[in-house]
Amino acid sequence: MALAARINQTKYEVFRWRCELSIPKKLALALGIALLTGLVAQLRVQLPWSPVPITGQTFAVLLAGVLLGKWWGGVSLALYAGLGIAGVPWFTGFGSGLGYLAGPTGGYVIGFVFAALFLGYFTDKYVRARSFVSMLALMLFANFVLIYVPGLLQLGLWLNIVKGQPVTFSSLLMMGAIPFIVGDITKAVLAAAIARGITPKMAYNGEADKDKWANWRLP
Question: The whole model's pTM is what?
């Protein structure tokens, strides 16, 4: 019991420390997560029928908001996108430049920012959001709505306008969504388990449910 209490107290202190950091230090952490995203982006499997590869990026994206919290998870992925446009070669396949972001996978990168903002908001705002079940639900929504929707929209536009290849909705799903579902669910389960393990189950930043969450906590 003493060890468990010490672990819980350490988690609380780490997240409290994270909230109280100065802006330069938060920017440094955001840059670190951007670098991590760039590294796992190089773990890729190219599909012969799709310009969208399987990568490890979404795992880093799902944890960015949890690790950095409200706003700063989104800032980290905005840095990833912005510095990549500026020439840092950390997009998939060591790509960079505005042309990459305007390509078939650019919409997913934009979705990364929305997903990290969304998860960071709920992590810092609600203690209940830090349970495994809640976090998994939030991560699945972030992945399959906030990332896939802009990703599929841009992929469809790129195929129609740039490649001159109009595609049906089912063909678009086969290129930009269906092959990735099992892997993305697996990454979400793993990320939710990590989030459940590292986040404190007590308020560290004036959470909205700090006085009532325990009455209906989830595992």
Answer: 0.91
